[in-house]
Amino acid sequence: MSENIANLSVCLAKAVRMLESIELLDMNGHISCRLPGDESKFLINARAASRASIRARDIVVCNADGKPEPGYPEPPSEVHIHAEIYRRRNDVGSIIHNHPHWQTVLGIADIPFKPVFSIGSFVENAVFYERSSLVNTREMGEELATLLDDQRAIQIRHHGAVVVGHTVEEAFVTSVFMEENAKKQYQAHLLNPDHRVLEGANLERTRESNWSPSIVRKVWNYHEEKSRLTGCLNGIEGEFVDR
């Protein structure tokens, strides 16, 4: 179990730093993943830890209600997002809550999300959660998780997004390309509100050919290597504290 926690803590810390480096996280936002072998628990970045310099020792193990296990620091105040989605979705292994610029702008403008970009073609017309404050109560977490249902993402109007995946890597890549699709849709909408979208057989073929475990791994490896070369991941390994 300690080895699982150590490896996942490094992976989560990497994901947080990489998302911060591409401006999909800032001083806020959080990523979690289930703990294999004890799926009533999950790991999440600590509330107080800097997203730019987070280390493996800054990852919190929480119980099913989002309470930290003894010896761990405080989780984010919006930990209820994660606890309630995991409670309802056995298929979800990782969750990201962030504040992506382009997706949030489309939501403010009330422009429906459409698939316009090949690797972002999995995007659907997103469901919106309309309570824009911090999702920092169990009641709000329950509402959001119920509205998410079986989809892979939900937007919090005027606030941000929540993305789910089977793994940390899949949630990371989904988050990256949802934002890239939103950016391209926003810019195309400025040029022509009646811009083209992917649809029909072309959409299905594009989705099929642009999303697979090998592509998820390729995208993750690209961002990981780029982050290593820039020094973004310095100091993550070897920092885990066995509690």
Automatic annotation (TrEMBL):
Keywords: Lyase, Metal-binding
Domain (Class II aldolase/adducin N-terminal) ranges: 10-186
Entry's transmembrane regions: none
InterPro entries registered for this protein in UniProt: Aldolase_class_II_sugar_metab, Aldolase_II/adducin_N, Aldolase_II/adducin_N_sf
Pfam family, one: Aldolase_II
Family annotation (PANTHER family): 3-OXO-TETRONATE 4-PHOSPHATE DECARBOXYLASE-RELATED, FUCULOSE PHOSPHATE ALDOLASE
Record's protein name: Class II aldolase/adducin family protein
Organism: Alicyclobacillus dauci
